[in-house]
Design a protein that fits this description.
By secondary structure, this protein is α/β, with parallel strands linked by helices. Helix content is 49%, strand content 13%. It is built from 8 helices and 7 strands. The chain starts with 9 loop residues before the first strand and ends in a 7-residue tail after the last strand. The site of nicotinamide-adenine-dinucleotide (NAD) has 29 residues, from helix 1, helix 4 and helix 6.
Length: 264
Amino acid sequence: MQNTSLQGKTALVTGSTSGIGLGIARALAQQGAHIVLNGFGDTAEIKALQTTIEKDFNVKTIYHNADMSKPEEIVAMMQATSDKFGGVDILVNNAGIQHVANIEDFPVEKWDAIIAINLTSAFHTTRLALPAMKQKNWGRIINIASAHGLVGSAQKSAYVAAKHGIVGFTKVTALETAQTGVTCNAICPGWVLTPLVQKQVDARAANEGISNDDAKKGLLAEKQPSGEFVTPEQLGTLAVFLCSEGASQVRGVAWSMDGGWTAQ
Ligand code: NAD
């Protein structure tokens, strides 16, 4: 079923071949937005994702394989979006990676990659998207931060630094656009069972010699009072709200959807 609240808009979602990004891309397409998919993956599978979104929601899609750690590839993706759709109306900075290690053991190249993909890429997409948004006097920028944008966890130094950074960047973007029709906000999810988190579940199961199910329960019990994972579909619903006219004075917030994680 398709709604029409975002008909005629174009949404670019970085890291949308999987997990949260894909959930948000589908939710925006359901409202009628054309979609620019980005992220890694098998070519045939990505083509199938495009076909499904186009068929399910009667919108157009393109895919760009820009590596979010490479500024010149981000420029090419933004240009391709402009060429096809005349610019980006809704920008969702979602691509992200994780690495878990104590600071003294943290591989330097992993630190650099996490900062580049989880933080710096949003600076590049935003700086390139803003001129056209300001000219149209309408735009929505949604940065997918994390509960780790608000609180820390041991062994996640680069991730927590990048996510706190993107919450700060969100506030500055919101201030610089405050008197325009462009808004910028962050969403801070708790645990969502995506490939990024499944890796941490697998590591926990292996380290503790427990089942996959028990590892999931352990992960949730440690941080997320609801004891349940947040879903990409729920995050898609929040993204749709932030794109609505009703949310036009929601500016610069870091909106938690974390099963109570950061209420503690
Ligand atoms: P995921 O691994 O399912 O998806 C990550 C996406 O980013 C994939 O499409 C992948 O191809 C893409 N990607 C990775 N490196 C890239 C690069 N260099 N260039 C372009 N694309 C790249 O992970 P997810 O859990 O859906 O994570 C999405 C975002 O949500 C991340 O920013 C993550 O930090 C954040 N987040 C996740 C959780 C969670 O519990 N899963 C919680 C809070 C925040």
